[in-house]
Amino acid sequence: MSTQAYNQQPIKSRASVQPGGSSSRPGFSVILCTYNRRSLILSALASLRRQTLPYTQFEVIVVDNHSSDGTLAAVQHYLKAGTSNENAPEQIWNVRCLSQKHNDLSEARKLGLEVARGEIVVFMDDDAVADPHFLASLQQAYVQTGADAIGGKVELRWEMSRPHWLQDEMLSALGQYAPAHKGFPLKPLESFSSCNFSVRRELLTALGAFSPLLSKRIQFPWSLEVEELCQRLHQSGCKVWYEPGAIVIHRCPASRLQKPYFVGKAYWEGRSRVLLEYELQLKKGFLSQRQAYRELRWCIRELFNWIFLFCIQQPLQRLAQEDHNELLRTAMARAEAWGHFWQRWCLLQHAPKEIVASRLPLLFVHSGTFDLTGSPLIRAMIAQGICCTPIKANLPLLWLWQHRSYRKEAIGIIHFYRAGAFNLTYPQRLNLQIRLWCARRLGLRIVTTDTGGWWQSSTSLRFRSRRLFERHILRKSELIITNARHPEQIYHEKRLQAHAQSLSLPGYRGYYSKPLNRDKAHKKLGLPERAGYVYLCLTYAHTEQEILFLLETFEEMSNRLPRLQTDPVYLLPPQLLLVGTPGDAPLGKKVLQYAATLKGIHLFLGLTRKEDIPVYMGACNVIVLPHQQAYLAGSLEEALLALSYERSIIAPDLPRFRDLLPAQAALTYNPASRESFIQACIAIQTRAYRFSPQEVPQIEARSGWQNYGQHLMKLYQGLLHNKPFTSLTEDV
C-alpha cells in the first residue's frame, strides 16, 4: 500500500460527542473508493470541494481500487493544481490518496477507515456528486437525532432521455433511494443506499466494518454489502436514521438504460441474496448439517422455478402478446431465479474462499452426550472465528465435498472429540472409517482430542471394539490433542507420539453456579445431620470394577476409622456419594448389595444436570477417582471440577494425572494397591484445600477457555499450513 497526503494538518486527539468543527480533528471523513473512473472521480471531488461546511470540519480520503486507467495520477494532478501556499489554513481542504493493491471494495473501504480521523465516516460512490449542503445536512441530522448511522437521499441524473419502458419501481436498480420526504428511523429490515451512507467511526470499527464475503469485485458485483451492515447495526441496538436533506446525485449513463442491464442486475441480486443468507448463518457461530441439506433442497426448488419461468410462463406471455414491461419483469424474475440457483449450487460445490479467510471451517464430531448448547469448548471456538459444524458420530459427504482442498491447499478440519465414547455398531464404525478414508483423500485435516474415558480402563471384551476404533482414529489423525503432560507415557507408538500435542484443560470456576450451602446441600441430598467427611464419585466416568474397588476401599476405611477416634477429625462416620451409573454397565448386584449393607453410601442414579453440580459440590469434601492399573486410564475433567470448587482430590498415579494436579490439593495413590488407596482416603480428611490468588486465573472458566480456544486456533492454522507445532502446555 502506498499513501500520499496533500495539505494534511498535524493530527491531534480530540474527544467529542457530536461532529463539530476543529482544526485538529475533522468531524467527517468522506471515503471515495474508485476503479477505472478517472473523469467521474474528479467530478465527485469537485462536488465535495463546493461544500458549504468549512474545510476544517471534514476530510476526503480517495482509495484507488487497483485502477488501470491512470485514476490515481489524475487525482494527484487535480489536487496539486488547487494547492497554493498563499491560502489561509481554513481555505485548504484535507485530501489523502491511497492505493489498494487488489480490486476489492470491502478492503478498499476498510483501508480508508483505518486512516480516517473524523468522528463520522461518510461513504459515496465514485459516479455520484454531492449536493453543496450534503455534509451540512448530515451534521445537523447527527446533532438533532443522536443517530449512530445515517443514510441520505439519492437522486438520479439522466445522461439520455428516460426510456418509455422504465417504470418507477425499477429506478432502485439505478441507485435511486428516496423512501420518504421527511427523516425517520429505519426499521430492522430496512437499509440505506450503498451510494450514500455514514456511520460513527468507532462503532463501525467495533462491528468489524464490512463483510469480505459480500464485497464487490470485478468478477462478482455483489450488491448487499451495506444491507448486511445495516442488519448488524440493528442487531446491536443502534439508531439508524434516514435524512432526505443529505442528497447525492447518482449518474445514469446510457449503458445502464438498456434492458440487458436490468436483467443482469436481477441475476446478481439473486446471487447476492443467497450469499447474504449464508453470511447471516455464519454469524451465528456454527452451522448444522441440516442447513447444508436445506441448501440442496432450495437449490432444486430454484431450478424448478427457473424451468417454470423459462419453459411455461415466458411462452404463454408471448402468445398472449403482453407488453414489453411484463416481458422485462419476467426476464428479470427468470434471471433472479437463475442467480439463486447458481449461487446455491456454488455453495454446495465448495466453501467460498472468503469464508476460509474469515472463519475457519470445522466439523466437530462428538458422541452425542456432549452438551453443545452451553459448552465452553464450543463457545471458545466460536469466539476465535471458527465456523463449527457439530455432528453426532458421522462424516456427511456433502460437508466433505464442500470443504475439500482447493488448489492443493487444505481448507477444512475434522475434529473427533473422544472417539472412544462413540456408541456405534460394526456397520456404523465401518461406514465412518470409509468416510474418513474419503476425507483424507479429499485433503481434509484430521484432529482428535483424547482426554481419556472409562472405556480405556474397561476389561470387558464388549468394549474392545471401542478401544480399537479409537486407536484407528488416532492413527489416522495428523494432530492428537491430549491433556497429559507426558504423552510419550500414554502413546507407545512413535507415530502417535510425533502427532501428540499436550494442551491442558481449563477450569470451570464461573461456568457452574456457586456451591450450595453445606447444610442445605446435605438436607437436599438426604444425608444424616451428623455426617462426617463426604466423598463424591461421579460414577458415570468410571467402570463397574472401579466402583467396586472404591466400595471395598470405603468399607475397609470405615472399619479402621473407629481405631483413630483419638483424633476428632475421625469421630463422625464418613459418607460416600455415587452419582450416575457406571459407563460400561448398569449398577450390578454387588454394587447394590454394598449400598444396602454399608452405612454412609448414597446412590443418585439419574443423569447429572448442570444445575445439580453445585448441590453435589456443596455437600462433598473431596472427589475420588478410582482407577485400575491401566496406563491409558483417567479423565481430568473431574479433577478440574474439584479444583474449581476448592475441593480436594484423590487421584491415581497415572500418566494422565502426573505433574498436572497441585500437591496441596491432591493425594495420589498406587492404583495397583488397595492399601495405598485406603491410606489416601484417610489422610485426605486432615487436609483442606484453598486455592491461592495465583491459581485463580488458571481455573477461571472464562479466561481459561478463551486461552484454550486461542491455542486451538493456532494448532488448526499450523495444521492447515503444515507448520511445525510448538509446546502449548500450561500448568493447571
Give the terminus-to-terminus CA distance.
44 Å
Question: Could you say which structural class the secondary elements and strand pairing correspond to?
Answer: alpha/beta
From the alpha carbons, calculate the radius of gyration and give it in angstroms.
33 Å
- Mean pLDDT, as a whole number? 85
Overall shape: elongated
Describe the largest sheet. 10 strands, mixed
> How many helix segments?
23
What percent of the residues sit in helical stretches (DSSP H or I)?
Answer: 25-40%
What is the subunit arrangement here? single chain
Task: Enumerate the spans where pLDDT stays under 50 for 5 or more consecutive residues.
Answer: 1-17, 727-732
Describe this structure in words.
By secondary structure, this protein is an alpha/beta fold. The protein is 39% helix and 17% strand. It contains 23 helices and 22 strands. Helix 7 packs parallel to helix 9 (324-349) and helix 16 packs across helix 19 (613-619). The longest helix is centred in the middle third of the chain and has 31 residues, at 289-319. The radius of gyration is 33 Å and the shape is elongated.
What are the salient characteristics of this protein?
disordered N terminus; 732 residues; 6-stranded parallel β-sheet; disordered C terminus; 10-stranded mixed β-sheet; alpha/beta; 22 strands; 17% strand; 39% helix
